Amino acid sequence: MKQFKITENDANQRLDKFLKKLLPLATRGLLYKLNRTNKIKVNKKREDNEYKLQIWDEVKIFLLDDDFDQLSKEIIKTPGLLLNPGVRLDKKDIVFEDNFLLVVNKPAGINVHPGDHKTKETNLISQVQDYLWDKLNSLTFKPSLAHRIDRDTSGIVIIAKKKDILTRLVEDFKNHKNIRKYYLALVSGSLDKKEWIIDKKLERIENAKNENKVQISENGLKAITHYKVLEELKYKNEIFSLLEVEIKTGRMHQIRVHLTYIWHPVIWDKTYWNKPLNHYLQKELWITRQFLHASKIEFTHYWTWKKITLEARLKEDMKNVLEKIK
């Protein structure tokens, strides 16, 4: 028999959904059968599958230990055993942390989620869960990303430690409420309009591989990008502009496609810029990835209800490029 106390991160979900997360290898049919045959008890009595769990509820599961372990795919919760030391979260990349949120400055070249690109290499959320491993006390909830940024984009990412905080943040990111996201982008050329709003619709191309994955299209979804020029730089015969970009929507590759559309692409963008210029800049400036950085975010903290503004420093490779140009 296994016995569990429901905490705030496990509360307010249906009993059957809780059991499915706790016993991921069990079929729903088996879980329903266990409940029907009184092998699942909540506060010493049988509850319907639709019952909403409450904080401090006591759930008992009457299974042999071996059977429970087989269905739960249980692993020993020992801190520091998830990842090798060389791929763990660098504490210098932590921008902000409290009991509710963890905000990190993601390096470029790492996926935020293991599903991206179907790779087995490390990813941001695995690093975060490894870092917080000995602090996790929920049975079914793990710290989760409130939003995403591209693999080759560095900068701010928010992770929620509490389920209710995650729900509110995800909803606000989805509806573009109470949150403002800013990026630094180094683009090719001198812009005639030093501050402008690009509002061209974007369409995602399904099953795109080597070609552009997103394009300007009237059949696409609404996308709004506001930029302003911070600085104009010259290197030999090339002119670059450093922009602060605020996105009012969160479409895939939005900044990169919109800036390419106005003929000022993000430098070293492998998808939306031409290869000869990429090769030239790699040789001259030692740049090997797109110059796009999620630099600042403003949002409401859903526990203190205070407005927070957080900034993430430029990564060393980007700082070096700017220094070489200057």
Question: How would the blueprint of this fold be written?
Answer:
Blueprint: E1 2-5, H1 15-22, H2 28-36, E2 40-42, E3 58-61, H3 65-72, E4 94-97, E5 101-106, H4 124-131, E6 144-145, E7 154-160, H5 163-175, E8 179-188, E9 195-198, E10 202-204, E11 214-216, E12 225-235, E13 238-247, H6 254-261, H7 275-285, E14 292-300, E15 307-311, H8 316-325
Parallel strand pairs: 7-14
Antiparallel strand pairs: 1-3, 2-3, 4-5, 5-7, 6-7, 8-13, 8-14, 9-12, 10-11, 12-13, 14-15
Compose a concise summary of this entry.
With 326 residues, this protein is of the alpha+beta class.
Keywords:
single chain, 326 residues, alpha+beta, Structural Genomics Hypothetical 15.5 Kd Protein In mrcA-pckA Intergenic Region, Chain A, Pseudouridine synthase, 2 domains, 10-stranded mixed beta sheet, 3-stranded antiparallel beta sheet
What is the CATH-assigned architecture of the largest domain?
2-Layer Sandwich
Number of helical regions = 8
- CATH superfamily (homologous) name of the largest domain: Pseudouridine synthase
Q: What structural category characterises the helix and strand content? A: alpha+beta
Gap between N and C termini: 68 Å
Radius of gyration, in angstroms, nearest whole number: 24 Å
Residues in β-strands, percent: 25-35%
Number of domains: 2
Q: What is the overall pLDDT average?
A: 90
